[in-house]
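pls design
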């Protein structure tokens, strides 16, 4: 097998590692590309290509994350991960765990860890790397990595998101939610939302967004019912789509350009959290991006 073939076979794993460390599709793709360049330039053939490439992509991702943390601290409004439509790495025996680990709720928890803790947790707990491999990847001793893993696991377990165990139930709940939005049925929406539901949007100062979270079933239901009919009148549409392993939707303007991505967390038959990514810089990998400011002006005119 050629180096190119070896790399391509492992590319899904490398991207999935990088995305979970970085929370950014664009940065993860760049990290994978840089990994290939280093692999291609390496004169020696590694004993284990998988271990070598995992080490390279992890170290690149840690470096990127270290430089990105300051920017995220200065980010305008709530920060959400770039939406991931499809995780390229598959493991049928651990599909549920992989889906949960890439959810927005889990990635936001990972944001609270140090870059080293985050990398160790991703390699060990998500992808089941042995501690010798983890230690080599992050450049720390096995003992230090075990301590990092314990701290990271404790933190993640304390705030770990829980979701509906049955995927079919989650998807049916999401379909009912989106049907209620289309129909402007505030009563049905209220029934589908948890009493303490929270809606968060990420515009990053680059698109109109909620200045703060909207909390409570009544407030969230009325927000959707008041805004979506006007959006529909100016040609905004949406289609159901998994977002970060959870039910969600992609909203588009009348020209089919991406307006925002909506992700839903569900538990006990109710929607617990709604997260909307509107920042166009975080949507370019999904497709051509709409002018959210222009759409917002049209919506305002349509409401009056």
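designed seq:
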């Amino acid at each position: 097998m050629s180096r190119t073939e070896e790399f391509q076979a492992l590319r899904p794993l490398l991207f999935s590692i990088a995305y979970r460390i970085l929370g950014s599709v664009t940065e993860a793709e760049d990290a994978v590309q840089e990994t290939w360049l280093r692999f291609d330039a390496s004169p020696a053939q590694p004993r284990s290509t998988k271990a070598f490439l995992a080490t390279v992509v992890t170290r690149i991702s840690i470096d990127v994350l270290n430089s990105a943390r300051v920017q995220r601290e200065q980010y305008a409004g709530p920060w959400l991960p770039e939406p991931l439509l499809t995780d390229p790495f598959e493991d049928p025996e651990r599909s549920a765990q992989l889906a949960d680990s890439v959810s927005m709720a889990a990635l936001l928890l990972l944001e609270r860890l140090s870059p080293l803790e985050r990398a160790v947790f991703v390699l060990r707990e998500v992808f089941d790397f042995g501690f010798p491999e983890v230690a080599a990847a992050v450049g720390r001793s096995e003992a230090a990595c075990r301590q990092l893993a314990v701290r990271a696991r404790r933190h993640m377990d304390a705030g770990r998101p829980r979701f509906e165990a049955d995927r079919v139930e989650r998807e049916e709940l999401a379909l009912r939610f989106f049907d209620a939005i289309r129909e402007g049925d505030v009563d049905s929406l209220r029934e589908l939302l948890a009493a303490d539901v929270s809606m968060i949007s990420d515009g990053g100062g680059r698109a109109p967004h909620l200045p703060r979270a909207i909390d409570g079933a009544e407030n969230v239901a009325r927000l959707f019912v008041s805004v979506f009919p006007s959006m529909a009148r100016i040609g905004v549409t949406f289609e159901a789509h998994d977002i970060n392993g959870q039910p969600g939707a992609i909203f588009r303007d009348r020209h089919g350009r991406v307006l925002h991505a909506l992700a839903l967390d569900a538990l006990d038959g109710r929607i617990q959290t709604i997260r909307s990514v509107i920042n166009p810089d975080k949507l370019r990998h999904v497709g051509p991006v709409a002018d959210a400011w222009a759409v917002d002006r049209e919506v305002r005119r349509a409401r009056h």
